[in-house]
Amino acid sequence: MRLSNIAHPAFRVAVVLLLSILATVCFADQRHFTFVYEATIEEPGEFELENWVTGQIRKSGDHSFGEADFRHEIEFGVIEKLQASVYLADWNYVSSKENNGFVFSDAALELVYQIRDPEKAPIGLAVYEEIEGGDRIFGSESKLIVQKNFATVILAYNATFEAVWQGRELGEREAEFQESLGGSYELNRRVSAGVEFVHEIAFPKFSHAERSVISGGPNISVHAGKWWGTLTALAQFTRARDEPDFQLRAIAGYAF
Q1: Is residue 132 within a helix (H) or strand (E), and if so which, with residue range?
Q2: How far is it, in rounded angstroms, from Cα 35 to Cα 85?
Q3: How many Å apart are CA 116 and CA 111, to the nearest integer?
Q4: Residue of 26, 17, 36 lying closest to 229 (CA atoms)
Q5: Do the beta carbons of residue 140 and residue 160 sit within 8 Å?
Q6: Measured between alpha carbons, how far is 154 from 19 in angstroms, rounded to an integer?
């Protein structure tokens, strides 16, 4: 990674907020991944607050590109096997050839229905639906979540289809199919480490498929008591011109 990328304004914003989030983690039922969802859910009456920071830097077609994305989420158990989440705000800071500055993106509602509990069944299984809306944007995201638990290892796979309408009169539309795979090993009671891989195919205007984009990298998760934090670093393997070469995502949660 070049020093110019490290000094990128969007990257600096993401790192500062990322570190401030992780500084609050005292080491709870945590997320072992940041790009892969797990089939475990909150019990009825349980609540959890999550804060996300994702930094993206450098594209093959725009070496000056940098973006920092932020999400604030409240997650809670509704009834047995059903979990809901409210994304209070998704916003970002972008620095590129086209524009610079902070932008509010959207708010969203997420529902997860657990078909099989990975802690009780041989294979955990859940389905996910998210509806988002904002200024000149509307989207839907559907996800299948599969999870397998071993003694000290967690494996998880997601298959996701997302559709987005945006712009004036929501006339711009795009779809994306994504697969993500993660593995996490419990080093001790408080620390887990693993890897994540993401495969994406975009369908501009709901038509032909663009070139696949594949990224992967390591993660680490720490937890204790009601706090937890997870950090993942991804590098793009396919060198797609319109996708970031590097991504860094942190999620910190507090259960109450």
Answers
A1: strand 124-134
A2: 17
A3: 16
A4: 26
A5: no
A6: 26
| Residue 246: Cβ-neighbour burial (10 angstroms; 0-12, 13-18, 19+) | middle
**pLDDT classification of 79: cutoffs 50, 70, 90:** very high
CA atoms within 13 A on the CB side of 233: 5
d(CA 132, CA 164) in angstroms, rounded, equals 9
CA–CA separation, 153 and 119 (whole Å): 12
Model confidence at 97: pLDDT above 80: no
State how far the Cα of 207 lies from the Cα of 185, in Å rounded to an integer. Answer: 40
Helix, strand and coil percent figures for the chain, each rounded to 5: 10, 65, 30
pLDDT band at 65, cuts 50/70/90?
confident
Closest CA to 11 of 117, 128, 73, 93: 93
Collapsing DSSP to helix, strand or coil, 54 comes out as strand
Are 221 and 214 in contact by the 8 Å Cβ rule? The answer is no
List Cβ neighbours of 201 (8 Å cut-off, separation of 6 or more): 176, 177, 178, 209, 210, 212, 213
Read off the tokens for 53: 């920071």
H/E stretch holding 252 reads strand 244-255
Mean pLDDT for all residues in the chain: 88
Domains of the chain from N-terminus onward: 3-255 (2.40.160.40)
- Residue 52 CB partners (closer than 8 Å, separation 6+): 34, 69, 70, 71, 72, 73, 249, 250, 251
Single-letter amino acid code for the residue at 159: A
